[in-house]
């Protein structure tokens, strides 16, 4: 089993949710996140005062998949979250980590069947 953590542009969330549902991924966690990377922030104006924003808003999506499903989930996330044909700085990142055990708290399922 693998845990996928994808940091994406907020405007890509609905499209990604729909695409994941199409490939039968219906269980994941979504969180607001802020990050600092190669974009280095941007200038913004609030009530006539210009200020520098260094942390940019992102969405964090966490999901656990069985090993045989990993590549399908990764390519779906990558294709949907990318902006433009070749992608852009600020599109986000995808991290993949091993999961040793999964336990369904409300039931008796453990391991791959709990995913």
Short description:
The protein is 19% helix and 36% strand.
Question: How would you describe the overall organization of this protein?
Answer:
With 115 residues, the chain is an alpha+beta fold. The chain has one domain (2-114): Alpha-Beta Plaits (2-Layer Sandwich). The chain has two helices and six strands. The chain has helices spanning 13-22, 70-81, and strands at residues 2-8, 29-35, 42-46, 49-53, 56-65, 92-98. The strands form two sheets. Strands 2-5-1-6 form a four-stranded antiparallel β-sheet, with helices on one face. A two-stranded antiparallel ribbon has the order 3-4. The radius of gyration is 17 Å and the shape is elongated. The model has no long low-confidence stretch (mean pLDDT 89). Keywords: Phosphoprotein. The modification O-UMP-tyrosine is found at residue 51. GO terms for molecular function: ATP binding; enzyme regulator activity. It comes from Blastopirellula retiformator. This is Nitrogen regulatory protein P-II.
Task: Give the secondary structure arrangement, pairings included.
Elements: E1 2-8, H1 13-22, E2 29-35, E3 42-46, E4 49-53, E5 56-65, H2 70-81, E6 92-98
Antiparallel strand pairs: 1-5, 1-6, 2-5, 3-4
Largest sheet: 4 strands, antiparallel
Sheet-strand content, in percent, reads 35-45%
Supply the CATH class.
Alpha Beta
- Reported by name, the CATH topology is Alpha-Beta Plaits
DSSP E strands, number: 6
Q: How do the strands line up in the largest sheet?
A: 2-5-1-6
Mean pLDDT: 89
Order of helices and strands: EHEEEEHE
Structural class from helices and strands? alpha+beta
Relative helix content:
10-25%
Q: Number of helical segments?
A: 2
Tally of individual domains: 1
Using only C-alpha atoms, the radius of gyration works out to 17 Å
Which residue ranges are poorly predicted, with pLDDT under 50 across at least 5 consecutive positions? Answer: none
Query: What is the 3D form?
Result: elongated
GO molecular function: ATP binding; enzyme regulator activity
Protein name: Nitrogen regulatory protein P-II
Keywords: Phosphoprotein
